[in-house]
Amino acid sequence: MKTILVLMLTLVLATGYVYAQEAASKAASRPGSLHSITLPAIHTELKEGEGRTTVETRCAICHSPDYIPMQPKLTKAQWTATVNKMIKVFGAPVTPEEAEKIISYLAAGYGTGN
Amino acid sequence: MGFRDFTRRDFLKTAGTLTAMTALGDMPSELFAATDGRRLVKFPEKTELLLLTSYPPQLETPLHYFRELVTPNEALFVRWHVTPIPTSVDLAQWRLNVGGNTDKELLLSLDDLKTKFPRVTYTAVIQCSGNGRSFFEPRVPGGQWKNGSMGNTTWSGARLKDILNMAGIKPGSVDVSFDGLDRGTLPTVPDFIKSLPVDKALEEDMLIAYEMNGAPLTMLNGFPARLIVPGWYATYWVKSLSEIKVLPRQFEGFWMNPAYRIPDNACGCVPPGAKPQKTIPVHRMTTRSLIINPEDGTSLRPNRPVDVMGIAFSGGYSIRDVIVSVDGGKSWSEAKLGKDLGKYSWIQWTYPWRPKKPGKYTLMARATNSIGESQPFESLWNPSGYLWNKIEPLTVVVR
């Protein structure tokens, strides 16, 4: 529940930030002073497996899922270190139970087998 | 080089892309193509590039673009660290804030950068610290780049030194930090900020670039202005700059420490799999070369001349020579160097070759710069996969 709240709060903040920026730019933009692009939506299908939904929702808060299949096959220890880095360094809102699920999924689907 | 080198394979690739576009409708957001099994994707202001990640975008340049001395803007690689990345900049609003331990604070518009400071132009290689990371053995986690996270671009902008001197650096200043418009999704995500020692920041050739190859920067390459640290890895070339801060102490931030570090020794390396005792920030680029033509695995005809062609560069020193071997390193010949665009640019080289007997041939190239720095035969290893510059053999078959 706590993580959902954090997630919602983040989305609200992020959306608010974008709206504030847009409002500010609309107020003072001159013709031709605005330069914008729209990023394409690119879908990457992750392997099926126990925990995929947790990975898709939690990891996708900050980055696209293609970060996962891009990696070489990593050991469970390396996947654990990667997930811990996301939590400890980047503050990913992931509970210990979810972290365990994520690590198991990554080690099973994208691991070296040990 | 040029159209002559537009191979049948390139033609098929293009034709395949066109077919795919027709099949998928008007504006496909992504295109699949047979390029090392990786996807080609189309982002705004860019041509189809190899997808590493889509958000934040990490896109690699297909190697055939390196047949050109200067890399087209739409083909230059893309690498962002945190999301959201800037996708909209209003120049009426955008200001570069210069301050901190300075006599005064500056708020510079893009027009200010263009009109208040002399315009400086030079060509410089931009290369990601992790270029070639996917070739490391044992493999290391991180962006799995091949050789396409680099390019050669003509940059124009204002000297950083002139800007810092206008603000007036106070005595006792230690570092200068550079922040861009990208911000982490969560407040806990470390903002992408890089720093340089004051002495480095005041070097003559440091630039705040507002043009690449005579055009405004593309959004994904750092519109409206980015830092250029010629000869150093692109991690310092902070994009879409928003703030430059002079600091009376050493900058401490995640992207300087523990990120982007190399072992603190002459080779920047440790035995494969080992942990370095002490690390320093990655900085100047190693010397390297790359064979662009023929491509690995190409079939050639006996007694037909082929121009072995490639590029070579080093971290801020001109290339003294490039030697080429077509027999797996047993014998070497000097390649002919092309047009010299200065010490920060890459140089093209050619070696005319006429393979006589059918068989497999292993081609290698090795560059040496003006201070004698060269390339190793065996890969040097470090845990983050930086400084890749091994001599890369490729094989062609003559039949």
Could you please describe the fold and organization of this structure?
The complex is a heterodimer of chains A (114) and B (399). Chain A is mainly alpha-helical and 114 residues long. Chain A has a domain at 52-110: Cytochrome Bc1 Complex, Chain D, domain 2 (Orthogonal Bundle), CATH 1.10.760. Chain A has helices spanning 2-28, 52-58, 67-70, 76-88, 96-110; one strand at residues 34-36. In chain A, α4 (76-88) packs antiparallel against α5. Residues 5-27 of chain A have low confidence and may be disordered. Chain B is mainly beta. Chain B has four helices and 27 strands. In chain B, the strands form six sheets. In chain B, strands 1-2-3-4-5 form a five-stranded antiparallel beta sheet. In chain B, a hairpin with a 7-residue loop joins β22 (319-325) and β23. The longest helix of chain B is centred in the first third of the chain and has 17 residues, at 8-24. The two termini of chain B are 24 Å apart. The chains are: A mainly alpha (114), B mainly beta (399). The A-B interface holds A 10, 13-14, 17-18, 21-22, 24-25, 28-30, 33-42, 44, 61-64, 66-67, 70-74, 78, 82, 89-93 and B 29-30, 41-45, 51-57, 82-84, 87-93, 134, 139-141, 143-144, 183-190, 216, 219-220, 223-224, 254.
Summarize the structure.
The complex is a heterodimer of chains A (about 110) and B (about 400). Chain A has about 110 residues and is mostly helical.
